[in-house]
Amino acid sequence: MRFVIMSAAALMLAGAAGVAAAAEDVSKTLTDLEAKWSAASLTQDAKVTDAILAPDWVGRGWSGKQFNKAQAMANLKDPTSKVTAIKNHDVVVRSYGTVAVVQGYDDETSSEKGKDTSGTYSWTDVFQKRNGHWVAVASQTTKVPAK
Q: Contact at 8 Å (CB) between 30 and 127?
């Protein structure tokens, strides 16, 4: 009987370790995806950005304006709006099965419609796993006031 209990306990611990490892994989996957998204903004890589954003993605920018994927893609290609440097930091991933919330900051050098928008931004992205791939479904960005 003791062997059965010990075996059951070992299986439960192994299962818990597997769940923790899976959560760590989601965290790494989404942190890497965020880095890829930031890199795509530097090079205005529409193909990468298109693959990251779900067709029904919606975002709210630092100015409070809401926009959809088509508008975000047009802005990415706009030569008067550019990101010339970006570094993500303090990224935290919370996974809830096929949905995850990713929060972090970035320090960037950027412009929008020719106006300097450089600074530190706090952001939240919501991802959903669809057809085996994580895609962003919602985003919110807030500009952090300069100190």
A: yes
Q: Please write down the HEC assignment for all residues of 67-97.
A: EEHHHHHHHHHCCCCEEEEEEEEEEEEEEEC
| Model-wide pTM > 0.90 | no
Beta strands in the chain (DSSP E): 53-60, 66-68, 82-96, 99-112, 115-116, 119-130, 133-144
Assigned token pair, 28: 């790494």
For residue 100, what are the contacts with CB-CB under 8 A and spacing of at least 6? 26, 30, 93, 94, 126, 127, 128, 129, 134
The whole-number pLDDT of residue 27 equals 95
**Rounded mean pLDDT of 80-99?**
96
In the chain, the percentage of residues whose pLDDT exceeds 70 is 84
Pairing of strands 119-130, 133-144: antiparallel
